């Protein structure tokens, strides 16, 4: 059981370049999330999705776009990379609201924009 | 807006001893969830313990327990019989009851060191 898989694990971008961070889960979870973690800080929610075709903004959505065409995949797009987007990005998934349900995290993508 | 504050950037504990990590939060909601997550050097986010605000009883998970003080908006984590594997960043997090549990607001974290 792979859980939540993120690719790539590391990436260096030049200012103004674009890229897509991939996230896929094999647990048939309908909720998926993208977080960023800046050095010395906690995670902040960028975007989330409650099911295929439905996405919504989190706390820090500027500079990012997402899509959710399937239950399994939730890619995060950076259109014009800026140094402020240097961070570690985490994808997570979970089932519909349940008190005892656990959130599953990927292992993160470390992105540097130079 | 809800906020989560962890006032201890770093803590240290001797192996086999007990340590308490502090967390305070601010919300106008009456029903919500609180969490402690562990992040070892591998970066993996691991759920340690969860507390539902409507429950009076403090949550426990083996050596981990919380002291939930709703009126004071305080949510501390106690680690008993500390082990070397407990060394990690610990994050306190909050989510509204009505929303998804994944819409989390995190504190800045506490780095826990365990001395042999």
Structural summary, described in words:
The complex is a heterodimer of chains A (about 110) and B (about 120). With about 110 residues, chain A is an all-beta fold. Helix content of chain A is about 0%, strand content about 50%. Chain A has no helices and 11 strands. In chain A, the strands form 2 sheets. In chain A, strands 2, 4, 5, 6, 9, 10 and 11 form a 7-stranded mixed β-sheet that branches. Chain A has a 4-stranded antiparallel β-sheet with strand order 1-3-8-7, with no helix packed on it. The radius of gyration of chain A is 13 Å and the shape is globular. Chain A starts with a strand and ends with a strand. In chain A, about 35% of the residues are buried. With about 120 residues, chain B is mainly beta. Chain B has no helices and 12 strands. Chain B has strands at about 5, 10-15, 20, 25, 30-40, 45-50, 60, 65-70, 75-80, 90-95, 105, 110-115. In chain B, the strands form 3 sheets. In chain B, strands 2, 5, 6, 10, 11 and 12 form a 6-stranded mixed β-sheet that branches. Chain B is globular. The model of chain B has no long low-confidence stretch (mean pLDDT about 95). The interface of A and B includes residues 58 and 105 of A.
Give a quick precis of the structure.
The complex is a heterodimer of chains A (114) and B (116). Chain A is 0% helix and 49% strand.
Please identify the structural class of chain B as seen in this structure: mainly beta
Topology as H/E string of chain A? EEEEEEEEEEE
Rg of chain A to the nearest angstrom?
A: 13 Å
Distance between the termini of chain A: 36 Å
* Average pLDDT for all residues of chain A: 92
Helices and strands of chain A: which structural class?
mainly beta
Quick tags:
heterodimer; A: 114 residues; mainly beta; 7-stranded mixed β-sheet; 4-stranded antiparallel β-sheet; 49% strand; B: 116 residues; 6-stranded mixed β-sheet; 0% helix; globular
């Amino acid at each position: 059981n792979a859980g939540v898989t993120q690719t790539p694990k590391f990436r260096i971008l030049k200012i103004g370049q674009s890229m897509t961070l991939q996230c896929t889960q094999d647990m048939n979870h309908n909720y998926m999330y993208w977080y960023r973690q800046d050095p010395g800080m906690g995670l902040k929610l960028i975007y989330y999705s409650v099911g295929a075709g439905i996405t919504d903004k989190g706390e820090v959505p500027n500079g990012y776009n997402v899509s959710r065409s399937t239950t399994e995949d939730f890619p995060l797009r950076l259109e014009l990379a800026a140094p402020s987007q240097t961070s570690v990005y985490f994808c997570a998934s979970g089932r519909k609201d349940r008190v005892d349900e656990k959130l599953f995290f990927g292992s993160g993508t470390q992105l540097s924009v130079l | 807006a809800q906020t989560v504050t962890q006032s201890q950037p770093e803590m240290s504990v001797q192996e086999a001893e007990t340590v308490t990590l502090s967390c305070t939060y601010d919300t106008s909601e009456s029903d919500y969830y609180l969490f402690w997550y562990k992040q070892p050097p591998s970066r993996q986010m691991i759920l340690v313990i969860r507390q539902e605000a409507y429950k009076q009883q403090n949550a426990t998970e083996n050596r981990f327990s919380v002291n939930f003080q709703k009126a004071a908006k305080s949510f501390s984590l106690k680690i008993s019989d500390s082990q070397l594997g407990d060394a990690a960043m610990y994050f306190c997090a909050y989510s509204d009851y009505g929303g998804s549990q994944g819409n989390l607001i995190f504190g800045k974290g506490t780095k826990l060191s365990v001395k042999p």
